[in-house]
TrEMBL record:
PANTHER family: 23S RRNA METHYLTRANSFERASE, RADICAL SAM CORE DOMAIN-CONTAINING PROTEIN. Its cofactor is [4Fe-4S] cluster. [4Fe-4S] cluster binds at residues 129, 133, 136. Binds 1 [4Fe-4S] cluster. The cluster is coordinated with 3 cysteines and an exchangeable S-adenosyl-L-methionine. This is Probable dual-specificity RNA methyltransferase RlmN. It is found in: Cytoplasm. The lineage of its organism: Bacteria, Bacillati, Actinomycetota, Actinomycetes, Kitasatosporales. Transmembrane segments: none annotated. S-adenosyl-L-methionine binds at residues 184-185, 218, 241-243, 317. One of its GO terms (biological process) is tRNA methylation.
Length: 368
């Protein structure tokens, strides 16, 4: 049962469940599943080593498993989850956005971004989004369904494989950062997102062996779910998509604010920071003449003063036909200066991907 006050979302009637996959299961459940197929339980570790250690889901690449068993294990525990519809690249190939079609025809997106000192992947946790933020392409499309744990994890596996195989210019590289900032509200798909974090960070072969400190989980402010996350005792970074420091405007920009107000959200974020020891990221999309006024910068600075937080200002990547657009450069500079004056760390996000429908949800919308 959901915690009191927690939002729940129901998949559309008739939506088919994603097929069971190795990445949906913890190690004990994998051994049980393999045994149910009439195989020795140790085959589960072999399968895990291939998928999580070598990113190999093709049974022809499993020389240590008998040929007679490979197809059965592959069909039951490593079924195809998603296929590439298309890739779109920019920044001389350093940014690559992928549109995926899931088993039921649903479309989701992920983005791989290569920088001189790191490689970041932005992944989706839902197909669509139920938060209804008016300036967001995904929010305006509505929610199709939650992704399974395996569908979330497989975006990362595919990205790691692409980096290893040199599909992204710059030579082989390793993925260092993962941000749950693609399609969907991660904390509205809490159980599966938490399962994905476990698979991503458990040591090989139980998982991919990544660091929790390299993972950022974004939320619009589902306060009960943030408190649940605190109890998980994770070292992931929390990012709060705030976008307005006052309830009057935030009720419009982020409709879930009608349930949990700005101060409640920031109090929960502060509690997460204190428990995890990690600085919270405050995401703030600067929208011309809507939320970029000097007095709102001043209010934001006063709200965050003394909090272990960093403001990430995002020049809005406008969606086609939208009335929302990015702030004027002079208003952006003034916003930064005011936050600096309050002693609040602030940066302006590097804008990538505008020429490839970079805003979350745009590629899927154009395909539809």
């Amino acid at each position: 049962m959901p915690a009191p006050g927690e939002l729940t979302f129901v998949a559309p009637r008739g939506a088919a469940r994603p097929p069971r996959h190795l990445a949906d299961l913890d190690p004990a459940a994998r051994r049980e599943a393999v045994a149910e197929l009439g195989e020795k339980p140790f085959r589960a570790k072999q399968l895990s080593q291939h998928y999580f250690g070598r990113w190999a889901d093709d049974p022809d690449q499993w020389p240590d498993i008998p040929i007679a068993a490979r197809r059965r294990l592959a069909d039951e525990l490593l079924p195809p989850l998603m296929t590439v519809v298309r890739h779109a690249s920019c920044d001389d190939g350093a940014t690559r956005k992928t549109l995926w079609r899931l088993h039921d025809g649903t479309l989701v997106e992920s983005v791989l971004m290569r920088y001189p000192d790191r490689v970041t992947m932005c992944i989706s946790s839902q197909a669509g989004c139920g938060m209804n933020c008016p300036f967001c392409a995904t929010g305006q499309a509505g929610l199709d369904r939650n992704l399974s744990t395996a569908e979330i994890v497989h975006q990362i596996v595919a990205g790691m494989r692409a980096l290893r195989d040199g599909e992204v210019p710059g030579g082989p590289a390793r993925l260092s950062n993962i941000v749950f900032m693609g399609m969907g509200e991660p904390l509205a798909n809490y159980k599966r997102v938490l399962g994905a974090i476990r698979r991503l960070t458990d040591p090989v072969p139980d998982g991919l062996g990544l660091s929790q400190r390299g993972i950022t989980v974004s939320t619009v402010g589902l306060v009960p779910a943030i408190h649940r996350l605190i109890e998980e005792d994770l070292k992931c970074r929390l990012a709060v998509s705030l976008h307005a420091p006052d309830d009057e405007l935030r009720d419009t920009l982020v409709p879930v604010n009608t349930r949990w107000k700005v101060r409640e959200v920031l109090d929960a974020a502060r509690a997460y920071s204190e428990r995890s020891g990690r600085r919270v990221s405050i995401e703030y999309a600067l929208i011309r003449d809507i939320n970029d006024q000097a007095w709102r910068a001043d209010l934001l600075g006063r709200l965050l003063r003394g909090m272990r937080a960093h403001v990430n200002l995002i020049p809005l990547n406008p969606t086609p036909g939208s009335k929302w657009t990015a702030s004027r450069p002079e208003d952006e500079r003034a916003f930064v200066e005011i936050l600096d004056g309050h002693g609040v760390p602030v940066t302006v996000r590097d804008t990538r991907g505008q020429e490839i429908d970079g805003a979350c949800g745009q590629l899927a919308a154009s395909e539809r």
